[in-house]
Amino acid sequence: MSSNARPESKKRKEIAVRFSKSHTTTFPTAHTTVRLACCLLIGSLALAPTAFAGLTQTVSDLVPRLAAVNVRERYAPEMELQRMVLQASRPGAEAERVALEKVLDAKVSDPAVPEPARVWILRQLEYIGAANSVPALTALLHNSDAEVRECARRALEKDSAPEAVESLREALAAGGDTRWTIGLIQSLGQRRDAQSVDLIARKIADPKIAFAACSALAKITSPAAIDHLWSALESGTAPAADALIAAADNLLKARQSARAAAIYSKLYKDPSSAGVRSAALVGLANAAPDQSEELIAEALSTTEPRLQIAAITAARKVYGSGASAVLAPLFSQLNDSGQMAVLRVLEAPAEEHIIAAAGESDEPVQLTAIARLSRVGTGKAVPVLLRLAAGQRSPVQKAAIQALGRIHGTGADAAIAEMAAHGESAIRVPAIRALAQRSDTAAIPALLYYAGNSAPEVASASWSALGVLGGDTELAPVARRALETADPDAESALREIATRVQDKPAASKELVALLPDAAPKQSSVVFGTLAVLGGPMALKTVSEAVSSGDADVKQAAVRALANWPDFEAAKPLLAIASDSRQTPLARILAIQGVGRLIKSSADVPVEGRLEAALAAMKQATRVDEKRLLLSAFASLRSAKAAQPIEACFTDPDLRNEAGMAGITLARSLFWSDRAAARRLLRAVADARISDQITRRAQAFLARRRR
After folding, report:
1. Which pLDDT value is given to residue 47?
2. Res. 572: pLDDT tops 70
3. Cα–Cα dist 307/189, whole Å
4. Residues 77-91: what's their mean pLDDT?
5. How far is residue 190's CA from residue 347's CA, in Å, rounded to a whole number?
6. How many Cβ atoms from other residues are within 10 Å of residue 324's Cβ?
7. Torsion of Cα atoms, 106 then 109 then 112 then 116, to 10°
C-alpha cells in the first residue's frame, strides 16, 4: 500500500467523525440526513468514472462562484464541492479520492485562487487530505492570510500522515504570535505527538500559553509529558494540577490504571487545592479501589464539603451497594455538611441512622434525613415523621408532611393507618391527613368512623380526608354520616366529593332519599350538595322545599337555588324574588342568583337570559342588586339589552355602573350590530356621566370610524 493510501474502514470512520464535528452551519440540523442522502445520489452522478476526465475543469469552474461577492451565492457551489468530496471519500473509491485530492492541492497552492475559495477548499481537505496534501498544506502555514493559515493547520491536524505532524512540529518550533502558537500546540496535543513534548513544555513558562500547553501534555500522557506537568505544578503553574487530573483520566481510559493511580494518589496528598484532591480521590477509586478505602474515611472527617462529597462518590464506586454499611457507622463523627452528604446516599439497611438524624436539632440535617426517609423509609420511620408533622409550622414540619405522603417502604401504609386509629389527637391528625395524601381509599370506612370523634380536630381532619378520597360510591355513606354527626365540616366534604361524581342523576337520587330522615337544620347539607350536582330531579326537590313550613328548610333551599349551576334555576329564583311573602334576604339571594346565572350561562340563548334579566331588574330594590344586573345586561350580546342600561344613566346611584355597562355591551355588539353599538356609545357620551367614561366612549367611537 502506498503512503498515500489508507485502510478503507479507517478512512470511512474519519470521514464520519469529521462531518459530525465540523462546520455545523453547513447543513441545518433538521435536514442533515436528507441532504446527505441527496449528496450520495447527486455525487454519484457528478463523479461517475466518465466525469473524472474533466475534474480539474469542474473544480476550476467552481472557484469563481466560491468567491462570489454575495456570500449567499457561495452556498450552492460550496455544497457542490462538498458533495464531490463526500462521494470521493466513500469506501472502495481510493482512486477517486486521490484524484480529487490532487486537484484540490493544486488549487490551494495557486495564489490566483481568491481567499474565500481557497478557505473552502482547505476545509474539504480536512476530509480527504492524506500524505500527498502535506507539502501544499505545509506551505500555507506561512501564508500571509490568517484564516488560510488556520485552515491549513486544522487540515494538517486531521491528516493522519506522519509527515503532517512533522510540519506542525516544525511550525511550532519556528514560533509565531500567541494565538498561532496555541493553535499549533492544540493540534499536536490532539495528535498525541510524544516527540513534541519537550517543545510544548518550553511554552509553559508563558502564562498566556500555559493552559494550552498543559492540556496538550495531558492528552499525550507519555512519561516525559507527565514529568513536565509535575515540574510545572512544583513551579506554581496554575493549570498543571487540572492537567494532571486530565492526564490520569486519559490513562485510565487507556487502561493504564497503575500509572493513573500513581498520579491520583500523589495529587490527593497535595493540600493546596480541595477541588484537585476531590477529583483525585474519585479517580483513585476508579483506578485502584483498594488504595482509596482509608482515604474515604479521612476525607469524610474533614470540614471541606467538596472532599466530603468526593468521598461519598468514591465510596459508592468502591463499595457499590454496600456503601451504606460502610458510611453509616461514620455518621456520628462527621460535621453537618458531612452528615448531609452521607444521608443523601444511605439506603434502607441504614434506616435507623436516618431516623436518628431526622430527630436531630440541626435543621439542615433534619431536612436531609426527612427527604431521604421519603425515598427509602419503611414503617419504622412513620412515628418520627408524624411527630415532626404534628409540630409547629416550620420547614421541618412541611418536609415531614410531604414525606408522609411519599414514603413507600414495607409497612408504611399499615403504620400510618395504625397511628390514625390510635394515640393522641396531635398525632392522629397528621396521620389522617397522610391517608388522604396517599390516596388510600381503603381507609374510607375508618375515616367515616373517625368523623364522629369527640375531638374536633380529629373529626375535622377526617372530613377533609373524606372530601379528598370520596367518589360516586362514597357520596351517600358520607352524606348519611354527615346527617348523623351534624358536623359543620361535613358539608364542604360532601361538596368536594360531588364535584368528582360521574353519575350525577344517580347521586342526586340517593341524596334526595335521605331528606325525609334529615332534621330540618341538617337539610342544608343535602341541599348544598344537590346544588353542586344539579339536574332536573334535584332542582324540582329543592324548588318544592322553598314552600316548606320550616324556616330552616326554606332558607336552605333558597341558598341552594342561589348557587345552582343550571340556568333552569332562574325560573324558581324569579318566583322567590317576586313573592312578597319571602324574607328580604331570600329575595336578595334570588336576584343575586339570577344575575350570576345570566352571566355564567353563555350556552343558553340570549333571549331567555335577557327575559330573566328584565324580570329580575323589575324586582330588584337594592342598589347592589341593580348594579349586579347591569353587569348581567352588559354580558348579553343583544341590542335589546341597551335600553335597560340607558334607563339607569340618570340614576345617581347607578349611572357610573350603567355607563361602564354600556361601553362593555357596545364593544360586544360591534361585530354583530354596528349601528346599535354606535347608538349606545353616543348615548353614553351624551349622558356626560363622568369625564373618564365620556372619553372612553368617544375614543372607542373614533377608533371604529377609522
Report:
1. 43
2. yes
3. 31
4. 94
5. 43
6. 21
7. 100
Q: Is the pLDDT of residue 583 over 50?
A: yes
277 Cβ contact partners less than 8 Å away, ≥ 6 residues apart: 267, 268, 270, 271, 299, 307, 310
3-state secondary structure of 425: helix
The Cα–Cα gap between 228 and 189 comes to 14
395-401 LR contacts (CB < 8 Å, sep 24+) = 395/363, 395/367, 396/363, 396/366, 396/367, 396/370, 399/366, 399/367, 399/370, 399/371, 400/370, 400/430, 401/430, 401/433, 401/434, 401/437
Q: What is the rounded CA–CA span in Å between residue 650 and residue 646? A: 8
Whether the CA torsion 474, 479, 485, 488 is positive or negative: it is: positive
Separation of alpha carbons 466 and 478, rounded Å = 8
Cβ-based neighbour number of residue 195 at 10 Å: 13
CB atoms within 10 A of CB 604: 16
Q: Which three cell numbers stand for residue 2?
A: 502506498
Task: Check if the beta carbon of residue 250 is closer than 8 Å to that of residue 218.
Answer: yes
DSSP state of 455: S
Pick the closest to residue 281 from 297, 266, 300, 268 (CA basis): 268
CB 425 within 8 A of CB 381: no
C-alpha cell at 587: 329575595
Q: Give the per-residue SS3 of 399-422.
A: HHHHHHHHCCCCCHHHHHHHHHHC
Cα gap 210→199, rounded to integer Å:
13
Q: Which residues contact 121 (CB under 8 A, 6 or more apart)?
A: 66, 81, 104, 107, 108, 113
CB 284 within 8 A of CB 291: yes
Exposed, middle or buried, 272 (CB in 10 Å: 0-12/13-18/19+)? exposed
Where residue 670 falls among pLDDT bands split at 50, 70, 90? Answer: confident
Question: What φ, ψ does residue 512 adopt, rounded to 5°?
Answer: -60, -35
pLDDT value, residue 54: 82
From the number of C-beta atoms within 10 Å of its C-beta (0-12, 13-18, 19+), residue 657 rates as: buried
Q: Is the pLDDT confidence value at 344 over 80?
A: yes
Asked if residue 242 lies in contact with residue 276, where contact means CB atoms within 8 angstroms, the answer is yes
Q: What are the angstrom distances between the C-alpha of 10 and each of 6, 17, 587?
A: 7, 11, 91
- Greater model confidence, 33 or 312: 312
Helix, strand, coil percentages in the chain from 3-state DSSP, rounded to 5: 75, 0, 25
Render pLDDT for 592-621 as a digit per residue (tens, 0 to 9): 999 999 999 999 999 999 999 999 999 999
Element (H, E) at 92: none
| DSSP single-letter state for residue 679 | H
Maximum Cα interatomic distance, the chain, rounded to a whole number of Å? 114
Instruction: Give the pLDDT score at 272.
Output: 78
Record the pTM.
0.69
Report the 10 Å Cβ neighbour count for 173: 11
Put residue 649 in one of left, alpha, beta given phi > 0 → left and psi -120 to 50 → alpha: alpha
Q: Which set of grid coordinates corresponds to residue 9?
A: 474502514
Return the DSSP state at 159.
-
| H-run or E-run covering 522 | none
How would you class 430 by CB atoms within 10 Å of its CB: exposed for 0-12, middle for 13-18, buried for 19 or more? buried
Residue 631, SS3 per DSSP: helix
pLDDT in tens, 626-654: 999 999 999 999 999 999 999 999 999 99
Closest CA to 344 of 319, 367, 321, 317: 367
